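As a warm-up, study this chain.
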Amino acid sequence: MKNKNLMLYLALVFSMMFWGISFIWTKMAFEFYKPMTIIFFRLIISSIFLHGINIFLKKLKTIEKKDYKWFVLLSFLQPFLYFIGESNALLFVSSTVASVLISLIPLFTPFVGYYFFKEKVTLMNVVGIFISITGVIMVTLNNDFSFSVRIEGILLLTLSIFTSLAYSVMLIKLANKYDVYTVITKQNTIGILWFLPIFLIFDINDFMNVGFHLKPFISIIELAILPSSLAYILYTYGMQQIGITKANTLVNTIPVFTAVFAYFLLGETITKLNIIGIMLAIVGVFFSQMNHGFFARIKLFFFRINNN
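Now compare it with the structure written out below.
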């Protein structure tokens, strides 16, 4: 029993670690390739990997014709708009700042739930937002209290945040029919078609001139297989076994993983002020998750894979 519990928590910790280090791998791939090139090949490799393991999982469902429009819209929100915001933002901000800002997404889900499903917004939601925003401001400051980030990066990450909220609403529409493995596989496959014209118009000449370089391409493969594929499977498996609340607590550790990996692999500096800010941002998200309405619906969807 103890070994089983250990494996469950290891599965969750590894999924958090993969999502945390994804910001670092993206930065590494920037050494030679543009953001759209990285995302395009990341989705191709992820789709091949997910379809490949379906040979063993036998979980991939066929999409009904009437639902294709929803999957096209879903993939437009994520991966298309979400990754346009996140990947391009990493050109302007550090991986740690990007990770902390993206981790704020759960803060705003109760307000989306209130608008679409008339669910109550609690005092804890408001308190959580106040604490987390204070933390984010501290993460973006130098020791002399001057800003260390560019506004372009903040705006692009804001696009990712609001895109993710819209994506969450779409998930609710599909949750009763399709499990997470089917959704992730299909949205990544359709996402290739969204990025294909952008890659052909803007990036293909640069890609042909740069050519193939093993080190940054390994980073793309790591992004495709680990954060974009395996992390979802591990997260789903662990969450189903230990429950939403405990799993959500671990989700808040993603910025910590990013900060640690960024320090050792990219040489990004982390000040005492930044560390306090990261902790405050995590505490704020934890407070906001005390609301179990809309956010719980989304999380429930992500561990239904073994029930379908």
